[in-house]
Amino acid sequence: MFTLIFISLLAVVSSIPLNSENVISSIRDADYILPGTVIPSFYDVSLILDPRNNETFSGNVSITLQPLVATNEIVLQANQMRLQKIQLFANANQTLDIFSRYTLATDDTHFLKVYSNGELNVNQSYILRIEYTAELSTDMFGVYLSSYNDQSGNRVNLIASQLQPTYSRRVFPCFDEPRYKAEFRTTIYAPPQFTVVRTNMPERTDLSKPQILGYNKYEFQDTPLMSTYLIAYIVSNFDYITNIGNMTFSKPLRIYARPGYRNSSEFALEFGEKNMVAFERYIELPYDLPKMDKVAIPDFSAGAMENWGLVLYREVALLVRDGVTTTSALQNVGRIICHENMHMWFGNEVSPLNWTYTWLNEGFANFFENYGTEMVRPHWRMMDQYVLLIQGVLQDDAVLSVNPMTHPVYTPSQIMGTFNAVAYQKSGSVIRMLQHFLTPEIFRRGLVLYIRNNVRQAVSPSNLYESLQQVVNETNTSLPDSVANIMERWTTQGGFPVLMVRKQAPTANSLSISQQRFLTDTSLSSSNEWHVPINWVLSTNPNFSDTSPQAWVRPSSPALAVDIPGLSNASWFIINKQQTGYYRVNYEDENWAALADVLARSHNVIHHLNRAQILDDVFNLARNGRTHYRHALEVSRYLINETDYIPWGAVNAAFSYLDIVLSSTPVYELFQRHILRLSEPLFDQLGFEPKQNEEFVTPYQRNIILNFNCRFGNERCLNKSREILMQFRENPSQRIHPDLKTTIYCSALREGDADTFNFLWEQFRASQESSEQTILLNSLGCTSNDTLRSFYMNQVISPNSEVREQDRHTILVSVINSSPAGMEAALDFVIENFAAIKPRVSGLSGTRNILTAFARRLTSRNHAAKIETFISRYQSIFSAAEEAGVRSINENIAASIIWSSNNYNAVNGWLRNQYGNSANMITSSLLILVSIFIAFYNH
């Protein structure tokens, strides 16, 4: 980065030698914010975009400005460009150039300061004109080259863009913060052989710009008021399909993809139309732009980007091909389309004042990607699956160092780091809780008002709360405090609470409920408290349907005593119906035992989402010592009768953690036997053959069951996997069902066979299908062959890597998740090569995904020592997101070290009591001593 900026600055000095300066300063975070003394209202941008040029592009911009105070200084942003000419005019006199000089910062404020000869007047508008040459990006941010091989094997280039969050300044000098909305007029000059040239708006008919020899000119209509980060460009030779002629959605919708992929675009067209219609009905505000394009890009840093009118996607996030796309990938396509569609309102119509409030965009898009998909595909059970997403983010949010939803950010690195699980999954989970404690209709009406009141504006959370509060007041909805006060703690504090629930007395009709912040590492503490909505179900009336709150646990208050008629007659009770509240619940021993008992006898009495909640809560509470592991393991016994996917999805993470911490202990074989016993009925029922008309989520459940059985040595599972793979290798036309590929490939690769690895690697090299490549990349990391594993990891940093930059982090994540040996190898590789890895896994999720994978699997003192080495080597180059990832790793390792000393004996004792055989043991006491010694030695 520094080198590019330095080169740019040298070029700037040579381009405009008169009165130009370069400024290097020591600045505070708040100094990254534009002063706001001058604001833009209109940009006229012209770009020469040529995919044949792999280094630069040329442009010019005219910005109409209004001073808000009398000043002679205009402050905006520019980065990685050579400024060749600057002019400044009063709008009323465009013949008199009043430009004096400029400065361009060498720090990462990227401030471009333009000075006038005299004072700019408040009641006058001005036009700033800048001609420049900019760098084509090499990291998929800004304007950059992508490419693909055509059907003849020839490389074909195209130009694409990604400007969120701070990369518009790489494309044209601008006021690159969300609050500075303006109208944009765009002209693109492109070589004649690139015939598909698109931006946010359709082409205009009243042409005014000059021609440039050797280029075709495309002039586009003016946009509505919008933020700079939502601008987008495509110069390509893509094909498209369209809804024109058969329109469900009222505006023209086109799906663009590389030639030969028209059929793969059909799902996106059909689903996208229906979803937009559903959202227009829900929000009660029509999509306002005259068209919408969705484009599948071979190289794209994010999953997708909601640019208004021109939404860009990775190919795997938009295209669906029969026989190739997995059920999971199909769902992901629908979910991401839905996510980007909702951004047309939450983000595009109404934007955050700044990236401190990223959750106002991404939290709502995350919630509605599930809620909105369920509107169109109810049989996908997206809102049931959302509970699994909540349980996943509870893991990430259970560290003291986690940032809150509203998280002040200033520098580009800090801003990039805010696009994390908190902004997306946690915020979506809190929004889901908000929907339930307000009730779905009041929530919807509040959002309708919020969007309507703030169209084309930039807002803070207070604007949201005001609209919701207005509907609460109109409907006389009872809340313990204002919406703003309730939400304030959820959004400005990190983490979440665990409720401690106990009966006042064995025969009492009241519960005592208190709260405390839940932290994985119990050696840490926090005084954070929240307004917590609660409801309950008794065994005497197991009705889980009404999820509105029946009481609230308030912050800074003593334990809540809540009277519940009939409680003394109930054999069990449950708090938090359908896990709509974003918190965990802990009970006394008697209620945990009663829940284990009813699940064993008649699990369907309890709602499937609450079965999932019980499993996730009890294993995590046991993991950090808040309840005894016997409760978790006793609850798990009922799974032998569980046929629903959601509870199995919930317990999968808990079993995976135990798999890690027990893998090097003497009790590991008994743990494996426990899982094989619980999963045996479903293994027999589901098998390897997908059935006609089976439930949409069944493939996910099958994969959990097959993965456990093949990993833990079920010979029937292993033999069937070998048989299917052998048939495919002997006859590649006999394709493996997409949903089974990862399990079958991993099962074979764990045996260390080089021929299998090489065969699958060649499959990857030969494939042009992004979905197929994703499956193979996730599978190849399963190899147990040290040489091949090393070869595979080196594809991340090799200058001749055949893996696209956007996908390279997948290599390391797949190795980390493959096995304990794979994790160790990946950790050593990252420690040795992080400086080379960092620039080669570019994107919003590259190094962060690698560090998150480590955070969930590193457990020992040896790991802690290695992470200290990692920090000492690379701290100087960590981004804000990477620093947060390392802090999370350290907290989780500390918790796992405590786990071994506090919980191993309990798990060991329970498993031996269930499955132990004294005939083949020396003595149980001796084995326990050996187990303790080995566990201590390993940690």
Automatic annotation (TrEMBL):
Residues 40-230 form the Aminopeptidase N-like N-terminal domain. It is an enzyme of class 3 (hydrolase). Zn(2+) binds at residues 339, 343, 362. It is a lipid-anchor; GPI-anchor. Residues 267-490 form the Peptidase M1 membrane alanine aminopeptidase domain. Its EC number is 3.4.11.-. It catalyses: Release of an N-terminal amino acid, Xaa-|-Yaa- from a peptide, amide or arylamide. Xaa is preferably Ala, but may be most amino acids including Pro (slow action). When a terminal hydrophobic residue is followed by a prolyl residue, the two may be released as an intact Xaa-Pro dipeptide. Residues 572-876 form the ERAP1-like C-terminal domain. It comes from the Eukaryota. The keyword Cell membrane applies. One of its GO terms (molecular function) is zinc ion binding. Belongs to the peptidase M1 family. This is Aminopeptidase. It comes from Danaus plexippus plexippus.
